[in-house]
């Protein structure tokens, strides 16, 4: 007799989970443990750096090796009398939130590996030595570290497939659909963590370009748009090049610096968005002009 489609997918989930636990073992028990040991001996890099690179990989490994994989194995052994996995995955889903921390830290971890490989030859040599081992299958540490980032989307795909292949009267339908919804929410949580990390990184770059004015630096700010603009001087009917940064709460009116050392711009004026008005002008001499008036000041500007 041919295996039902849903069982094939459940078996694929089990096989990929087994391979995934092996990968986590390599990251936590080999890379992390050995690099930590050398760091403690003061031979490679500070212990803090190793901890920052591997984030919460130990918790992720323990959870999958000691809880999820054994539960899945047990369920697949009993498949003939209990053909279902939805309930097991429902138990797994809340724990997947811990991936948020790992995913958020991922870019920083990659950067640290690069920086410290250049700074500390013994650190680079130890990584190269581990990478040569058979268990690494000719792949780099960075490649292995990408695996947890890709695991939740993989669960989502397999489970979608599983739900699709379930017979309408299957006893697992309700549980499997609920499990899929939970995994979907976790994936969203993980993506939101990545988006938030990117937003903060972009914000930080903008603050550096502005020369970090203390009262402007606020992680809750959101950059909406930026770009060059012409300031119209009504006194002598001329224009001069300026630059605007529009945040959710303020408009920064800046002057590009001639000497590009450090900050790119100097903030000349800050207008609060609260109470600000924008009005288009019909000026034949200067097309595309508009007036920005706020509590602090009124500006006449010309767009491209």
UniProtKB/TrEMBL annotation:
<feature type="domain" description="DH">
    <location>
        <begin position="5"/>
        <end position="193"/>
    </location>
</feature>
<dbReference type="GO" id="GO:0005085">
    <property type="term" value="F:guanyl-nucleotide exchange factor activity"/>
</dbReference>
<dbReference type="InterPro" id="IPR035899">
    <property type="entry name" value="DBL_dom_sf"/>
</dbReference>
<keyword id="KW-0862">Zinc</keyword>
<keyword id="KW-0863">Zinc-finger</keyword>
<keyword id="KW-0206">Cytoskeleton</keyword>
<dbReference type="InterPro" id="IPR001849">
    <property type="entry name" value="PH_domain"/>
</dbReference>
<keyword id="KW-0479">Metal-binding</keyword>
<keyword id="KW-0677">Repeat</keyword>
<dbReference type="GO" id="GO:0008270">
    <property type="term" value="F:zinc ion binding"/>
</dbReference>
<dbReference type="GO" id="GO:0005737">
    <property type="term" value="C:cytoplasm"/>
</dbReference>
<dbReference type="GO" id="GO:0005856">
    <property type="term" value="C:cytoskeleton"/>
</dbReference>
<dbReference type="InterPro" id="IPR011993">
    <property type="entry name" value="PH-like_dom_sf"/>
</dbReference>
<protein>
    <submittedName>
        <fullName>FGD2 protein</fullName>
    </submittedName>
</protein>
<dbReference type="Pfam" id="PF00621">
    <property type="entry name" value="RhoGEF"/>
</dbReference>
<keyword id="KW-0963">Cytoplasm</keyword>
<dbReference type="InterPro" id="IPR000219">
    <property type="entry name" value="DH_dom"/>
</dbReference>
<dbReference type="GO" id="GO:0046847">
    <property type="term" value="P:filopodium assembly"/>
</dbReference>
<keyword id="KW-0597">Phosphoprotein</keyword>
<dbReference type="GO" id="GO:0007010">
    <property type="term" value="P:cytoskeleton organization"/>
</dbReference>
<feature type="domain" description="PH">
    <location>
        <begin position="222"/>
        <end position="304"/>
    </location>
</feature>
<dbReference type="Pfam" id="PF22697">
    <property type="entry name" value="SOS1_NGEF_PH"/>
</dbReference>
<dbReference type="InterPro" id="IPR051092">
    <property type="entry name" value="FYVE_RhoGEF_PH"/>
</dbReference>
<dbReference type="InterPro" id="IPR055251">
    <property type="entry name" value="SOS1_NGEF_PH"/>
</dbReference>
